[in-house]
Every structure is written in structure tokens, then in C-alpha cells.
Amino acid sequence: MFHTLAKSLPWTQSPLIINAPMGGFAGGELAAAVTKAGGLGMIGGVFNMNELHDHLVKATEILHAHHSLDCSKNLPVGVGLLPFISKLEEALPLITEFKPRVLWLFAAKKFEDYATWSQQVREASPDTHIWVQCGSVTAALRIVELCKPDALAMQGADAGGHGFEKGAGIVSLLPETADALQCRGLGHIPLVGAGGIADGRGTAAALALGAQGVVMGTRFLAAKETIVHRKYRAALLDAKDGGQNTVRSKIFDELRGPNIWPEAYDGRSLVTDSYTDHVNGVSIEEIRKLHNEAVKGEDAGFGENKRAVIWAGTGVGLINKVEAAADIVIQVRNAACEALQRVAKF
Ligand SMILES: Cc1cc2nc3c(=O)[nH]c(=O)nc-3n(C[C@H](O)[C@H](O)[C@H](O)COP(=O)(O)O)c2cc1C
């Protein structure tokens, strides 16, 4: 059942653990550590392609020094880009140069853009597989029709960071997508699950729901190799009861200036002072002013008065310590196997 991704990502171990390509947070060091531990390491696309280049160089250096990994055809990591903001003509030279195993696309302005990206990337780097993240059954079917992705990342409403404003949790999203693909003779397209998964139990559940692997963002924000402000991380470690203390809202994309995200998206963050002010009717001008002052401070707006966005999923309450990324991968993988064995006894 879990054959397909294991075959296309031969260095990985089952169940497949993937760090989310969190733009500005998941760099070359994190991706390399996750890959070395038998997961799929991902680099998050940033606005600036020079920065992405540097992260790819870093990952290449680390992985080439790790002799048990075959880097001859591909760089065994993925790169995540946002077609609504990244420029295909700027991304193509990097993809051709580094040949990442996976190009992950998310948040195109229109579905057709996934087809344009897939076609050109496949021509430029035939060994780079195209993965698309989306948050509904309808979107999954449309994307499959347009660009036949090599895998789909199904993102549930519990996810930290951006996602579909209208969405279901993975408990229904994954099996309904699997069934819908199966009905159309497309059941061979592998699914991975994202959103609220933070440990082995969530991973085991996602596998039972039809995923071949899991994507974790919030859990990896607590990895040593992730690029994250110490106050942001402290706020994550403090947070409990994610359903109460995180929230989805478009206000988080209004803080730096007018929202540039496509209409269908909002984002999940810790409940912050900016959000609370918004709910209490404070004007966006005043909220922005307070935000812009706070982010200049030493705690960058992540401290006591949380004015900056602290993207986090509902699984945040399960995260209690900072760990090496490899330890997270290995622990979650082992705990998922134990959980599956436990339930198999029922
Ligand atoms: C801090 C942060 C930044 C993110 N940035 C991106 C991104 O740049 N591109 C992307 O495709 N997804 C991004 N995501 C969403 C993830 O791909 C993934 O769906 C999500 O992290 C899964 O939910 P979880 O955080 O509960 O594990 C981000 C998530 C977080 C928490």
C-alpha cells in the first residue's frame, strides 16, 4: 500500500515524515537533517531566489558529505514555492541547477497555473516530481485533471500557516479525496496528510485515513535547525489547547499592508493581540500602527504583547521542547509504528 512514495523517495523510511516547506523558516539545514534521518526534507520558498539558492547550496553541502545518500541524479530534498508570488522564470534556473527531488506548489492564483509550472518544470528537470498542496476534494480533482501531480498534500483546517479558508479536517478530507480519486481510476496518486499532526498518534491516524506520509509544520518549528525567533518559539512552547489558542483569520495577512493572498486563503496563527483588537473592532490602521512599532522591538512582536503573526496549527499543545530535527523524525516514525501495532490488537 505504501509502495509508491517509498519507491520514488528511496532513501526514506516508512512511515514517511516530511517537514513542511515553511517559507522563511525551513532552510537547507532543516531539510538536510530531515532527509538524513530518512524523511523528506523540504526547503520553504522565500520571496528572494538568492536566499533559496543559498539554502539549496547548504543542503547540497550537507547531503553530499553524507555518503550513504545517492545525490547523483537528484538532490534528495524538496523545494516549496507559491505560484501566486514566485516567478516561474526565476525558479526554473534553480530547479535545473539543483534538481530537487520534489517541487511542491501551493496557493496558485488559478488552478491552471499549476499546469504551467508542472509542464515547464518537468521539461527542465524530468527527475523532479511535482507535488501540490490543497485543501479540498474539489481542488484535488481539478489539480489532478490539470497537471497529474506525482503526489498531493491534503491540508486540513487544523494546519498552521496558510490554507483554504473553508476547509475540513484530515479525518474526512483524506478518505474522501482517496475515494474520489479511486472512483476516477486515479487511486495511484499518493496522498500525504497535513494539518494538526504533531506526533506518532496523528501520523498513525493519517496513515489509517489513506495517506502515505505526513507533513508537519508546527512540530518542526521546534526543531533546532529551523530558522525561528526565540520568542516565537517560546510562545509556541507555552501554547496549549490549540483549538482555543490558535485561530484562522485573514487579519494576519493585513498586518504589514493590504492582503496579497488569493481570496480562497486565510491563515492559522496563535491568538494574538492584533487578532483580539480586530475582533473588538479596532481599526486596521491602528492595528497596523501598533504592529509595525512592535516588530521593531527586541522581541520582534512575539513577546508579551503579541502583535506579530505566530503561525501555528492546532497541534501546538503537543509540542513541549526544542529537539534536533532527526530526533523528531525518528521519534514520530517509531511512535507511529507503535500506535499502529497497538490498534491492530483491538
Ligand atoms: C510557520 C509556517 C509557515 C508555512 N509556510 C508555508 C509555505 O511557505 N508554503 C507552503 O506550502 N505551506 C506553508 N505552511 C503550511 C504547511 O505546508 C503545512 O500545511 C502545515 O504546516 C501543516 O500543519 P501543521 O502546522 O499543523 O503541521 C506553513 C506552515 C507554518 C506553520
Automatic annotation (TrEMBL):
It comes from the Eukaryota. GO terms for molecular function: nitronate monooxygenase activity. Keywords: Flavoprotein, FMN, Oxidoreductase. It holds the Pfam family NMO. This is Inosine monophosphate dehydrogenase. It comes from Glonium stellatum.
